[in-house]
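For homework, think about our next protein:
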Amino acid sequence: MSNSIKLLALVFITLFSSCSQDDEENSNGNVNQGFLKIGNQSVELSQGYLENFGVRGNAYNIDFSLKSKSISGEEKGAVVYFELFSSLQNNLSKGDYAFGGYSEATAYTFTKWGQSLIGKNINSEKGGMSVKNGISIRPSGGTFKVIENGQLYKVIFTGKGTASYYKDGVLTSSENDVSFSMQYQGDVKRSEGKTFTAKKAFSEERLEKNHAVIFN
């Protein structure tokens, strides 16, 4: 009788341990995690956003944004923004996205209008974003990869861009072909994209986009 009780206790402990491990793994799988790296600077990312700007040409203009836990004040923060064209109406299609033009609106491409920032005091401004002390980079090439696009998103970017360096809100220098990368796995907040009515100079007829969703 004693041996039977010990055996049952051992089985219970084993099952409990297995369930706890599975719960922990599932919990960890639902934690938003990622990073933005520009040159040798890196900041963790914690929240994703998907903005749907509707159909354009034969594709759907769906933009993807990320931000760190804090993007203002003395703590260094990060924001990621990519303008993409998807073959799906309400999601970014799985696959690799290459650098392309806005006017062509070709599925599986991202445009030069993306912008990623690392630094202190990141703010929204009409037609873009700014950083008081840090780096702002716009992509000039690379690959944006969508691995998962369901309840949780998983994306990776590696490429190069034109970096602008700021100190106390003043542009101090610019540099081409700067390497930067991004990874993210987690949920995304979805919204309908909003634009300004004014067109930016030399915009190839691209309406200026409102980045307020990132800062709300």
